[in-house]
Write a structure and sequence with these properties.
Elements: H1 9-36, H2 53-75, H3 82-108, H4 113-136, H5 142-164
Helix pairs in contact: 1-2, 1-4, 2-3, 2-5, 3-4, 3-5
């Protein structure tokens, strides 16, 4: 813990709990935003533009980034490791979505909508929980707290670049059309 900081774990728990609801709600909206926007290129970096696994990762990533920005000011002086905690949670969510999705589809041989939704919920809850544990834990390396946001920025840039120019690999393949990137 930082000297002179009395960690406010109740506030951190409340913010992270509300964050779960925010991320799930906003992420669900992002699933449809691209179509609702008339396939706007302005919505494309943030919304799922097709039914690939990659595009669905945005549904957790961008709302988690937005939530971190919203909670930064009210929480920062009352907790530890803000940048590291939020970056870890934000990056963990898409990683868990991929791991759980590919894990269960390897076992079942197909994807199941209920399990896809459950995977999203579990990943968001886990990301927010890990964030909470880091927020309320002992202070970590100042260097990690400085580097962590850069990792989030790099991943955000990758979401933008790969929306418009995706590699032709399974992660980026639209499961409905077999295409890549923005349908067109």
């Amino acid at each position: 813990m930082r000297p002179g900081v009395d960690v406010d774990s109740r506030s951190a728990a409340a913010w992270e709990g509300v964050g779960v609801l925010f991320i799930l709600g906003m992420g669900s909206l992002l699933h449809f935003l691209f179509a609702w926007s008339g396939n706007s290129p302005l919505a494309a970096p943030f919304a799922a533009v097709n039914e690939s696994v990659w595009e669905h990762l945005k549904m957790a990533f961008w709302p988690a980034v937005a939530w971190a920005l919203l909670e930064r000011r009210p929480l920062r002086s009352r907790i530890n490791n803000f940048a590291l905690a939020k970056a870890t949670g934000i990056i963990l969510m898409p990683l868990l979505i991929m791991g759980l999705f590919y894990g269960y589809t390897a076992i079942l041989g197909e994807n199941v909508l209920f399990l896809d939704i459950t995977t999203f919920v579990v990943a968001v809850c886990a990301g927010q929980y890990v964030s909470y544990k880091l927020l309320t834990g002992d202070e970590r390396s100042p260097a990690l707290n400085r580097i962590a946001p850069l990792v989030v920025v790099v991943v955000g840039v990758l979401f933008v670049v790969f929306t418009f120019s995706p590699p032709e690999t399974a992660l980026f393949r639209d499961s409905l059309t077999g295409g890549y990137g923005i349908p067109g």
